[in-house]
Design goal:
- With 393 residues, the chain is an alpha/beta fold.
- It has a single domain, classed as Divalent-metal-dependent TIM barrel enzymes (TIM Barrel).
- It is 43% helix and 16% strand.
- It is globular and about 60 Å long.
């Protein structure tokens, strides 16, 4: 597999020189200052690519081109923003960039409720607790009709948890949920998120899925025409938030999308951690089922502590057998090489990492500190080498 590293541009505390020392050869990045719906200009893409290459690395994957909310809503502006998304895709293709990750989560992107959860070994991990989320939704945001989305006993427990929060805890929880985590498309304030949620009133799962299919029916042929692969990241976490549907959470969700838009240009970002945070997802089976469409892999692991509660564990711990998953991906690479595919190697990155050692005292992007990902990449690299050696023998 192609070993890559997510980098958030010149302002990232982890430099390109750091990435080289970690042993990655590919960079996963985007033009993060561009607003959703804004066309990325060729000269800006070329400048970012040149900076990466000057550091002795290559820009391997674009993560992500934001999908404007109008597309998810399917409103009158959707066609304009789809055209602009396609123009950005074509501009990226003109600079030799051919793998584009994106997501289709409404309003909030990847979401956690705790960014410094203590692990048994002393590192700090990312965690999601649906009870904390509900406490925010019900008693801090006070979303209209929120009580309809939770059982009565759950609301009582969430209220008890809220009652134990002081102002500092409330501010931290709100910032964690809605202020925007690294790579998120939008950052919200409390009033802003209320308005955004109301915009989605009436958009149920069927409507959101139809809007996604409509998007792909236009984007996938354009991608195929210019030799680009688009790969859809699963919902994170893969469950409804703020009463809004999420439709990229399970194997059946992906199967429906690939049936509707069958071109191989329409693929999956196989995020083991996102899919693995639902107990009813078999991540190994998902990898096998869609192996030919895995255009990008996020390798991380989670431990589910209770229904709706998980934390990001060490890369080789948690609920997904990472050795088996890497074996599936290497088998797919061998098939691609035999078939002469233009994309024989799957880019993977060590997704997230614990906050470890002196990184605890540094400015870091949550989930994207250097040492935790360095550790994860080393572990994953070792597994890959061992699996490849045993297969060859």
């Amino acid at each position: 597999m192609l070993q890559t590293w997510r980098w958030f541009g010149p302002d990232d505390p982890v430099t390109l020189a750091d990435v080289r020392q970690a042993g990655a050869t590919g960079i996963v990045t985007a033009l993060h200052t561009a607003a959703p719906g804004e066309v990325w200009q060729v000269e800006d893409i070329a400048a970012r690519k040149s900076a990466i290459e000057a550091a002795g690395l290559q820009w391997s994957v674009v993560e992500s081109i934001p999908v404007h909310p109008a597309i998810k809503l399917g409103d009158a502006r959707a066609a304009e923003y789809i055209d602009q998304w396609i123009q950005t895709l074509q501009n990226l293709s003109s600079q030799g960039l051919d793998t584009i990750c994106y997501n289709f989560m409404p309003i909030v992107d990847w979401t956690r409720t705790d960014l410094r959860y203590p692990t048994d070994r002393g590192g700090l991990a990312l965690r999601f607790d649906l009870m904390d989320f509900a406490a925010y939704d019900l008693f801090i945001l006070r979303r209209e009709r929120a009580e309809q989305d939770y059982a009565a006993t759950f609301i009582t427990e969430a209220q008890a948890r809220f009652s134990r929060m002081d102002e500092g805890a409330i501010e931290t929880l709100e910032a964690t949920i809605i202020a925007g985590l690294p790579g998120s498309e939008l950052s919200h304030g409390r009033e802003g998120i209320r308005r955004s949620i109301e915009e989605f009133a009436g958009v149920d799962a069927d409507a959101l899925r139809a809007n996604l299919v409509s998007f792909l029916e236009q984007v996938a042929p354009a991608a195929e025409a210019c030799g680009v692969r688009v790969c859809l990241h699963p919902d994170d976490p893969p469950l409804p938030l703020f009463g809004l549907p999420r439709v990229v959470s399970t194997q059946s969700d992906y199967a429906a999308l690939f049936a509707a838009v069958p071109t191989l240009a329409n693929g999956i970002t196989l995020c083991a951690g996102s899919l693995g945070s639902r107990a009813d997802n078999d991540v190994i089976e998902i990898a096998r089922a869609f192996a030919s469409r895995v255009h990008f892999a996020h390798l991380r692991n989670v431990t589910i502590q209770a229904d709706g509660v998980f934390f990001e564990d060490d890369h080789l711990e948690g609920g997904v057998d990472m050795v088996q998953l890497i074996a599936v991906l290497l088998e797919e690479e061998a098939r691609r090489q035999q078939a002469g595919r233009a994309d024989p190697f799957i880019p993977m990155r060590p997704d997230h990492g614990h906050l470890l050692l002196d990184d605890v005292h540094k400015k870091t992007n949550p989930g994207y500190s250097a040492i935790g990902r360095l550790k994860g990449l080393a572990e994953l690299r070792g597994v890959e080498r061992a699996v490849a050696s045993l297969t060859a023998a």
